[in-house]
Amino acid sequence: MRSLTGVPASSGVARGSWIRVTAASAPSGGTIDPVDVEPEIERLGDARDAAAAELEALGESLTSAGREEEGEIFGAQAMMAMDPMLLDAASAEIRAGHDAIGAIRIAARHVADQLSALGDELLAARAADVLDVAERVAARLAGIERTITLDRPAIAVADDVPPSIAASLPRDRLLGLALEAGSPTSHAAILARAFGIPAVVGVRDLMATAEELAGGDAPATDRTNASELVIDGDTGEVVFDPDTATSARLETRAVAAADAARTALAEADLPSVTRDGVAVTLLANIGTPAESAHAVELGAKGVGLFRTEFLFVERPNPPSEDEQTRANRDVAEAFAPGPVTIRLLDVGGDKPIPYLPIPPEANPFLGVRALRLAPESPELFVTQLRAAMRAAAPAQDRPLGRVKVMAPMVADARDVDVLLELAAQASASLAADGLAHGEVELGVMLEIPSAILVAESYLGRLGFASLGTNDLTQYTLAADRGNAALERYRDPLHPAVLRLIAQAAAAADTTGAELSVCGEMAGDPAAALALVGLGVTVLSMAASSIAPVRRAIRGADAAALREAAQAALTASSAAEVRATFTDLLPPTG
Fold this sequence. Notes:
By secondary structure, the protein is an alpha/beta fold. It is 46% helix and 13% strand. The protein is built from 21 helices and 16 strands. An 8-stranded mixed beta sheet has the order 1-8-7-3-4-5-6-2. Helix 15 links the parallel strand 13 and strand 14. Helix 3 packs across helix 4.
């Protein structure tokens, strides 16, 4: 038995034979004579056009199969292939003496290195897209097909799988996906989640272990290994040839996961109400429209946080207003008549966008980010607000729910002035353009302590506020949430954080603004009970957390939660508070 550990990327347990996957690769690039430069540039252009057409066809195939969001991944790749900057850079390399295959790889590598150097996981994943596009162009130049077949059901094992290859793997025979490279935000991982295929990425020593177990004889991609592999997409566990005890443990986990998934679907229509009658609204946090259907199936009554960053990092150029409108409308229609809250773009030095002039900062979490970019890039937010307002236009066939827009990184009333001014510009420009649009509710994320301390000075001019407890905890306790050494400071049940939440609830009551929570705290059953005890009864979370939070709420008494929450405000530690609310959770099993 060989046991490895990676990063969970797509839920579920897969078990079976395995196969090392490697796409056919074009040969290394060479050099050309000066007389061949122009014909080689023409050949590159033809191959680029053919590759873009293939990517568009792959996207259309996924869209026609009901996978519109996944189809858009390859629409974005087709746009990358057609990007004149990439072609110009490759043409310059040809003029420098490289052949077309070498030139497209050099140009793509330069772009990919720029994206990777920005230090953002999402943009690093998009770097893989650029390289994937280049390899597809190179394959067209070399006359090679980049397709992979599986002769029987198997788990695919690879260093990495480019998104276009992942999409072409036969899903009826793909049991799971284990990758040595990649991240949960890579397109291979996104596709695995969309297709319900268990996946683990970032598995150290995966390929060396696979080669060793295969006896050093690298199997072809049309031949599977007889030995067994089990991967757990929830824990990141990867086990070759599990022994009897490990096999039984993983099988038990697989059965439990399947039972939990069935139970979550069966309970989706149950009301989220405490035993003494306090109703709690459970919403979903989503990152793309493709996540909508599953969240609705699990009982989400709307969206408390629709992250819009996916639209901006999937491409070399900013998304158009029409594209943003379609994405917003897709989500609004999916959750109708429930509300949908769209968060304005939240980027900064830690999550930069290549085409936005955001200089590196020593401490980007405390720098020019999110709404603080408005003075230099107002059109960015006006376009987003226009797209939200257009998505809120009344529909004749099916009434939509409330469309809401919230601004992140708000510190005080002056920031609210900026939001209201941007919204006024968006509304006025839509009216001047004669475009159909509807009203949107405006609100803010409460993630900076100052925004809570002075909330009564501006909440009366807004419709709602949503507590972003991830950053609120980070800023309150001066603890970088990415620093593993500061683990004890990450728990949002710290009394200092709870006092800020209680103050936010009081300010919302005074001003009549709706208050919700959209941070990870809402998806933690024990923490969710604390929030209800503090008077917050609109909770938004990852769809997978809805079922356990609903069970916790249905098994609790709001009166007992209020009493425990008041005591928690004077507790000495997060651990003490967590123990209190863990004891209030209903028994499992």
